[in-house]
Amino acid sequence: MVPHQALNAYRQTAVQAEIHPVKLIHLMYERALVHLELAEEAIDKADSRKRGENLGKAIAIVSELNASVKSEDQSEAAQFLRGLYGAILVELPKVSLRNDKQIIQRSYAYIKKMKEIWEQTAMQENGFVVDESHEAEKSLRTGVLSENLAGLSVSI
Q: What are the C-alpha distances in Å from 87 to residues 3, 63, 110?
């Protein structure tokens, strides 16, 4: 009886741990933004180790986002996403060489816009509610990326 109970507990935990793919993409956008903020803060503090760690994590997340676009999908939206993620993946490693915060800010702006589009489309279509008060709190807490990013337009 004990092995059967253990198997049931394992199965129940596995089901509870599953994350809906739409929510997973949203979490990846959020984490990429956090790591870009931390990388920019590290540049300001001349902390090359933290800059590298956070850039590496942001690059890994963008790579996963790129891989999540189905390769057989040749729609305009899929091609746009592959191009955008590819451009970000080319640019972000340059930050380590030049400490170029503009690259981080540009990447941040594009990823943030993609996250907003994702929230307005896929998240709502799948019944997820986005907690905007949490977003405002993060922006106030970090105080990073104060560049005026208004007017950024990305359309799919």
A: 51, 11, 11
∠ CA 64-39-50, rounded to 5°: 100
Q: Which domain CATH number covers 117? A: 1.20.120.340
Residue 87 sits in which domain range? 21-142
Sign of CA dihedral 39, 43, 47, 48: positive
Residue 110 scores a pLDDT above 80? yes
**Domain membership flag for residue 70:** yes
Tokens describing residue 103? 């690259």
What is the per-residue pLDDT for 155? 31
For the chain, what's the residue count?
A: 156
From the CB of residue 156, how many other CB atoms can be counted at a distance below 10 Å? Answer: 12
Cα separation of the two ends of the chain: 55
Report the alpha-carbon angle 42-139-69, nearest 5.
Answer: 80
Distance of alpha carbon 39 from alpha carbon 101, whole angstroms: 9
Ramachandran bin of 145, using left for φ above 0, alpha for ψ from -120 to 50, beta for the remaining angles? left
pLDDT given at position 93: 97
